[in-house]
Amino acid sequence: MYHYKNLVNEYLTKIETDSRDYYKLITKDEKDAEFIKAIAKSYHEIISDYAKDRKDQIMNIMKKFSNRFFLAPAAAKTEYHGAFPGGLALHSLGVFENLIRLRKAWDVEDKIDSESCLIVALFHDMGKIGDENYSYYNIETEQWKLKRGINYNFRPHKFIPNDKEDVFLPVPHTSLFLLMNNGLKLTKDEFQAILFHDGVYIDENKKYGFNWSILTELLHQSDITTIKLENI
Length: 232
What we know:
This protein is mainly α. The protein has helices spanning about 5-10, 30-50, 55-70, 85-105, 115-125, 145, 170-180, 190-195, 215-230; strands at about 10-15, 20-25, 135-140, 150-155.
C-alpha cells in the first residue's frame, strides 16, 4: 500500500539549507514528468482501494482539478516541506499513509471509516491550489528570491468590497469550499478535521482544542508527523 517513501527515494534529492536537510524535486524535465505521473498513479490506486460510497464524487474532483492539484507545491520556500511541483500531492499522500498507520496503532479502525481517512488526508490542504478562479501559489521569477530558496510567491490579495469573485479564505476554508462546491458531501467529523488540521498553531483554533473528534486528532498528528519526516 505504501507509495510515499518509494516516491521520495526515487524522485527526490536532498539539499543543504541553513544547516538542515530538505527535499527538492530533481530538476530534470523528464524526471519531473515521471514524478507527477507516479504520484497520480498512486492516488488512483489508493482511491480505488479506500473510497466507497463517495468514490465517484472523489474521482470527479480529482479529474476537475488534477492539473492544478498535482503540480501545486505544499509551500513557497525550500525551508518548508514540498516547495516544488507535486509537493502538495506528495505531502497529502504521506499524511494519508501515516493516518492509516496511526489509526491502527490507536486501535480505532472500527470507529474511523477508511473513506473518511482518505478524504481528509488527501484534501486537507487542497486550498493550496487556490480557488475556482485564482491560484494560491505562483512561480517566482526574481533571481534574488530564487537564490534564497523562495520558489513561489503568494497571489496578492486585494480586498475589494462586494467583489464576489475575489473573497479571501484561509487554506482550510478554501479546501472545504472546493470540496462542498463540487459535489462532495462531508460528515461533520470530516468537516472539523479539515478545518482544524493545523491545530492550535492557528489562534482561531485554540478555543476548539479540547473538543476535537478522534478523526481530527488523527489528521493533525499525521500532518505534523509527515512534515517532520519530510525534514529529516
